[in-house]
Design brief:
Jelly Rolls; nine-stranded antiparallel beta sheet; mainly beta; 337 residues
Length: 337
């Protein structure tokens, strides 16, 4: 039943959103995230009891007031850092792995926020915090898309009655990709400064959001949650599969040498398969050339009262199908450690 249902959901998603499967002259076959070899020394399994995040508050809010508020927060193992654009979640804490998690997993990571905007100054508008994996700097290079990179993660969704009482995005799992495109560049100085368009490096952040429709706000009979995909060729988000159960989910994204991003998700902690396929897209009509890293978003109402939904993540991994250069890898064999 799971196979036929997932195929129906994926096909329906394509018809509704105008997305395209990875077929045709310019598209390559989608690659299941987790295919190939795991890169050693990046991402995390949160098994070390001494794992610690050093926040270095107040956090950065460059997206709101252009204030970076350095130095940025870091983990003691050097594998994560505060997002310079939006700052880190208010709570970043290693916790015991919830029931039903990966075999032999004893530690996972809790992410939660109240002030997702300016520190201590609630806005009453939805904002988000970032928690960024230190992939690019630990590798001392960006991954070429020709290496076919992919990322997987497990995410624990708490029971619905424990979610923040708000409709909108609650959690995001995203990539940081680069391409060559027309960008704005400032030239000149003082009153002679102007902006011109030229070809340059463009960073963009495709991903998946967990979207929640609260029944008290929608006036519907029940709460509703689904995956929202970022994005189609026009830069618009669109609705993906419905989330019909809480507990553990596995999410993944891969990027093929044609620059296309492929999205996968399934309930549970099993490795992803072709049956968990959602869609393939060229977000913003870009074709990816380089992979920087991945990161999580935590969203809240930023009203100074309500905490965000408490999401727990575990065992994120980065893979390459065709590794090149100096990079330590190991073959992926199973979900056990």
């Amino acid at each position: 039943m799971r196979i036929s249902l997932r195929r129906i959901l994926a096909a329906a998603c394509m018809l509704v959103t105008g997305g395209s499967f990875a077929t045709g002259v310019s598209a390559q076959r989608a690659v299941v995230p987790g295919t190939g070899s795991e890169i050693i020394g990046v991402a995390d399994d949160f098994e070390d009891p001494s794992w610690k995040y050093i926040p270095r508050d107040p956090k950065s809010t460059e997206d709101i007031d252009e204030n970076q508020r350095g130095p940025m927060g870091r983990t003691s193992n050097g594998r994560w850092y505060e997002g310079i654009k939006r700052g880190h979640p208010d709570v970043v804490k290693r916790v015991e792995t919830p029931a039903g998690g990966l075999p032999n997993s004893e530690g996972a990571l809790l992410l939660r926020s109240k002030f997702t905007g300016l520190p201590g100054r609630p806005s009453g508008k939805m904002h988000q915090d970032d928690f960024v994996a230190n992939v690019q700097y630990r590798l001392k290079r960006k991954l070429s898309i020709s290496e076919v990179p992919s990322v997987t993660t497990r995410v624990f969704l708490p029971p619905v009655d424990q979610w923040e009482n708000r409709s909108g995005p609650h959690f995001g799992f995203r990539l940081a990709l680069e391409t060559t495109a027309m960008v704005d560049k400032e030239v000149g100085i003082g009153i002679f400064k102007r902006t011109k368009k030229e070809m340059g490096n463009e960073v963009y952040w495709p991903g998946m959001f967990i979207e929640f429709e609260n029944k008290e706000q929608t006036k519907k009979e029940s709460d509703f949650a689904y995956l929202r995909i970022r994005s189609n060729r026009r830069g618009g988000d669109f609705r993906g599969p419905q989330i019909t159960t809480t507990g553990w989910w596995t999410l993944g994204m891969s990027v093929t040498p044609d620059g296309m991003v492929h999205y996968y998700a399934a309930p549970g902690v099993d490795d992803l398969t072709e049956e968990d396929y959602i869609t393939s897209q060229f977000p913003y009509d870009y074709r990816a050339e380089r992979f920087r890293t991945f990161f999580y978003n935590i969203c809240s109402a930023d009203d100074g009262r309500r905490w965000s939904t408490s999401f727990i993540v575990d065992d994120p991994k980065v893979f390459v199908l065709r590794p090149s250069g100096k990079i330590a890898t190991r073959e992926q064999t199973s979900t056990t450690r």
